[in-house]
Amino acid sequence: MRRLAAGLAVLTLAGCAMTAPPYTAQVDNVIKLQKSEAVQITVGTMTSTPGPSNKDKISIRGSQLQSPYGTYAAYLAEALKQELSLAGKYAATASRSISAELLRNDVSAAIGDGHGEIEARFVVRDNGDVRYDQIKTAGTTFSSPFMGAIAIPNAVQAYPALVQQLLLNLFDDPAFLNALK
């Protein structure tokens, strides 16, 4: 009986690993880029600053949420590539590039209202010259009832929408769009 109890305790503490849904471009983001006067741009280096609110394995009620691209910096890179590609603005060898440093990245499924937050420093360079350097943030809230069977999937599904909102905030910035001209 003790072995059974110990085994259950280990399983409970270990949680399980889940993978965040792959990124899917948002129509509003693509349209904003299509309407812009942006030249061809490539996605440069994406990094992540380690810290308590910036994790590559997000803990949601004891379960680990991992990026399907290896890291959340790679998730952001994939999101940018998709948005730029669908808008016809991406070129792997363009002289202009956008890079980012992920500063904050977390989702919490607290009982009641869950929330997510993301923050990144975006830099646009043209042949090495900095044309844009700003920090953008996004946040979201979602239903997070007591039952983990509902709250955890809600938190997992909130992550791609959080990244879409971050990119929408970036694409809404006239200084960013001007840096892409």
Describe the structure.
The N and C termini lie far apart (about 70 Å). This protein has helices at about 1-15, 25-35, 70-85, 150-170, 175-180; strands at about 15-20, 40-50, 55-60, 65, 95-110, 110-125, 130-145. The protein has a single domain (about 15-180), classed as Rossmann fold. The relative contact order is 0.19. The chain contains five helices and seven strands; from the N terminus they run H-E-H-E-E-E-H-E-E-E-H-H.
Strand-helix topology:
Layout: H1 2-14, E1 17-19, H2 27-35, E2 42-48, E3 57-60, E4 63-66, H3 72-86, E5 96-108, E6 112-126, E7 129-144, H4 148-171, H5 174-179
Parallel strand pairs: 1-4, 2-5
Antiparallel strand pairs: 3-4, 5-6, 6-7
In summary, what is this structure?
The chain is of the alpha/beta class and 181 residues long.
Biggest sheet: strands side by side, in what order?
Answer: 2-5-6-7
Helix % is 25-40%
Question: Count the strands?
Answer: 7
Q: Total number of helical segments?
A: 5
Assign an overall shape: elongated
- The portion of residues forming beta strands comes to 25-35%
Q: Could you describe the largest sheet, including whether it forms a barrel?
A: 4 strands, mixed
Low-confidence stretches: 1-14
Distance, first to last CA: 69 Å
